[in-house]
Design a protein that fits this description.
Elements (H helix, E strand, L loop, with lengths): L2 E7 L4 H11 L5 E8 L5 H8 L4 E3 L8 H14 L4 E4 L8 H6 L4 E5 L11 H8 L3 E8 L9 E8 L6 H24 L3 E4 L2 E4 L17
Parallel strand pairs: 1-2, 1-4, 2-3, 4-5
Antiparallel strand pairs: 5-6, 6-7, 8-9
The structure holds 5-O-phosphono-beta-D-ribofuranosylamine (GRF).
5-O-phosphono-beta-D-ribofuranosylamine binds next to helix 1, strand 5 and helix 6.
């Protein structure tokens, strides 16, 4: 079933761009119906306009209850016939208002291998911890912070000379691959959620064990 996407962005929107490109190229069976931002300066809004997609701002007003903000967002999404909500660099925690309006149809991407390193300043935390791998995770959204059932992940090595910026760039390249792919699985009706686990039917296992540094035995 072709997806009718509402994409929520706060910043650059490079994941939005990957989704727009994948739909245009026929790899992703989806139409981006509207892009919504909490911030009028988000470059993602410009990307939407360039792709002839409606771009809307629901400005974040400090002190306004989050539920109220989300009610306004839901109204915009419904007004554009959205059936699936894609958080793509959206810097607000969503509430039950949004989740109840699109049950099981809200997805997010996080630039780490969840459940490790949820929240903000992820790459700094990964480097400070000395992790040898990081990556990205596409997951269904629940009321927690980066806690929902995991759809797919990509792993990248952490290099000794990495800075938060170089690590972020290596991970972002993979985000642009797995986010459209995860959405295509959803479009194909191939994702089955059982508790915390998400199964792909039929399954398509990934490419195997990784070592960093390499193993000589
Ligand atoms: C990505 O790293 C995403 O995982 C995180 O915020 C960043 C957004 O990048 N949630 P962009 O706006 O899609 O370029």
């Amino acid at each position: 079933m072709s997806l009718r996407l509402g994409v929520l962005v706060s910043g650059s929107g490079s994941n939005l761009q990957a989704i727009l490109d994948a739909s245009r190229e026929g790899q992703l069976d989806a139409e981006v119906r509207v892009v919504v931002s909490d911030s009028p300066g988000a470059y993602g809004l410009e990307r939407a306009r360039r792709a002839d997609v409606p771009a809307r701002v629901v400005p974040w007003e400090p002190g306004r209850p989050r539920q109220e903000h989300d009610r306004a967002v839901v109204e915009v999404l419904r007004g554009h016939g959205v059936d699936t909500v894609v958080l793509a660099g959206y810097m607000r925690l969503v509430t039950g208002e949004l989740l109840a309006a699109f049950p099981g149809r809200v997805v997010n991407i996080h630039p780490a291998l969840l459940p490790a390193f949820p929240g903000l300043h992820v790459h700094e935390k990964v480097l400070a911890h000395g992790a040898k791998f990081s990556g990205c995770t596409v997951h269904f959204v629940d009321e927690g912070t980066d806690t929902g059932p995991i759809i797919c992940q990509a792993v990248v090595p952490v290099r000794d000379d990495d800075t938060p910026e170089t690590l972020a760039a290596r991970i972002l390249r993979e985000e642009h691959r797995i986010y459209p792919q995860a959405l295509q699985y959803l479009a194909e009706g191939r994702l089955r959620v059982e508790g915390r686990r998400v199964f792909l039917d039929p399954s398509s296992p990934g490419s195997g064990t990784l070592h960093n540094p390499s193993v000589r035995f």
